[in-house]
Design goal:
374 residues, alpha/beta, TIM Barrel, eight-stranded parallel β-barrel, globular, binds zinc ion, porphobilinogen synthase activity
Length: 374
Amino acid sequence: MSFSNLVKDMSFKDSKNSDDSRSTVSRPGLARSYTSTQATSVSIAGDIKSQLHAGYSHPLSRAWQAERQLTKAMLIYPIFVTDNPDEFTPIPSLPNQNRLGLNQVVPFLQPLVEQGLRSVILFGVPLAPGAKDALGTAADDPEGPVLQAIQLIRRSLPQLYVVVDVCLCEYTSHGHCGILYEDGSLNNAMSVERVSDVAMAYAKAGAHCVAPSDMNDGRIRAIKLKLIEEGISHRVNLMSYAAKFSGCLYGPFRDAAGSCPSFGDRKCYQLPPGGRGLARRAIRRDIDEGADIIMVKPASSYLDIISDAKDIAKDMPVAAYQVSGEYAMIHAGAKAGVFDLKTMAFESTEGILRAGAGIVVSYFTPQFLTWLDA
Ligand SMILES: [Zn+2]
């Protein structure tokens, strides 16, 4: 429809609806102003409401269209700490990521903190022969890498917020996330007891936030109760990996953390990829059990779950973990010339924020610290 026809059409509506106070075209002054521009004969495709370009024609007005802007404070950087003090080993399947010994942690993190890094999530990687056993004893070994790293970071980089992943799979000889019965099936009650003890050890060592990723039923309640009993529940954030799906996107992480199950898989405790209703139930359960933050993992293939999490946990922060396989895929795609790495890193992360997350666990964190300054 040409603009002049549109004006005629609107004038017609105006005369018909002159008593309709809700109609913008019923105001006489407005109708006259359209008529006065009739000579321009500007052609537009639809009615006035179809005109959106002005709202995003400038980089700043484009940014204003997002409900959440990516900021440095939203990012948590995963760090792998080994029991070999001087180790600094690149992880082949995770580009630009390394396994760090205790002596490397502060020199590695210091420049990132100066660039604005606010938070890390720690994973322990015991490499010493015999470090793993059926109970995951090394998880809360006072001489082990994670407990040492918590205290070291709190002492040396006091401005950094320390989140610690809580699980047994990096420390158990069988590589599963809990304690097993003799037949190899999961002993949920013992697993919850053990996982909550490990969480307490991290909390008492100074972790700001403990993040159980084991998916054993009832572990959030057990950890919360122990935090309350210990009198530290007011200072320790409890972030639940509430909706953690099983799948093939964890490969590079297991390579990094040495946590591949020696038999079977994790399907009895991680969620099936199609299980949207189950995820919603797990999220509700973990809120009821005392979680302070709800996490969804992986992120990009589960944006509907992130959206569900924000819907269910309206008054809580929602975190999403862009896992190792997602990160490695973006790197592989960029290397193959499919897209530009930085553009895709932003696009994927903005998608995660748009879905509802306000916290993103991301291997891109060091690069975002630079990119967000530009
Ligand atoms: Zn695990």
